[in-house]
Amino acid sequence: MHRSRHIIAIRTLVLIAMPFAARGAAAQPAATPPSQAARDSAKLDQLQNDWAGLRRYRDANAALAAPRADERRVVFYGNSITAGWAKHFATMFPGKPYVGRGIGGQTTPQLLVRFHQDVVALQPKAVVILAGTNDIAGNTGPSTLEMIENNLEAMTEIAKAHGIRVVLSSVLPVYDYPWQRGREPAPKIIALNAWMKKYARDVGETYLDYHSAMADARAGLPPALAYDGVHPTTAGYEMMASLAEPAIARALSGAR
After folding, report:
1. Per the structure, how many domains does the chain have?
2. Is residue 246 domain-resident?
3. Which helix (H) or strand (E) holds 96?
4. pTM value?
5. Same domain, 30 and 133
6. CA 17 → CA 5, 20, 27, 247, distances in Å?
7. Same-domain pairing of 66 and 40
8. What is the pLDDT of residues 32-55, one digit of tens each?
9. Distances (CA, A) of 231 to 15, 100, 201
10. How far apart are CA 183 and CA 155, in angstroms?
11. Is there a domain that residue 49 lies in?
12. Domain that holds residue 9
């Protein structure tokens, strides 16, 4: 009799405990996929040990020969938009000694830190700077337009001190950032571009206006030109190339 009662008690406890065990199991967070975990680990390592991305092009820079005396090397400098564009240089700028030095997600303070290594040391005749959108998105923390402007000024001054002509590119239109919704970047981009245009004129450098040619009615990028509202499609890059070439020619000739 006592044995039967003991068995019944155990069964009762098991039945009571089962829902709580199931609930606890359900509450456990899903394991991070290995590929995502590796990406997160790499990103953390980069932020902690190479915030400015100095390692990204170190080997490529070392392997790049010094320009010939008659070579009109141009460095395209910026973030993921520039990095993506560099993949098309061979077809969009055939035969041109153009070098891409873009790193995805970067903001102007990061670009300023690596400017000497990834621009000045390559001895270009000109640099095409396309930067500022990730600052407005808040990729490395809060940033004011004045902070962006100061960093662009600093890069321009460094380039000019080394005899490098500067092409300051307008920030591309953005209606909303897919990774930072609700920041309303469009008016900030327009204001930054207006400052950039005036600054380039004041210091005798070239302003490259992508925004006017690419913006839609919302001051964003249409789907034909950007697959996510930020990063250009091939058609978007082709339009940019058609605008960049004459701007580079003006910069190299000393005209504005």
Report:
1. 2
2. yes
3. none
4. 0.83
5. no
6. 18, 5, 15, 73
7. no
8. 566 777 766 766 777 778 999 999
9. 56, 16, 28
10. 26
11. no
12. 2-44
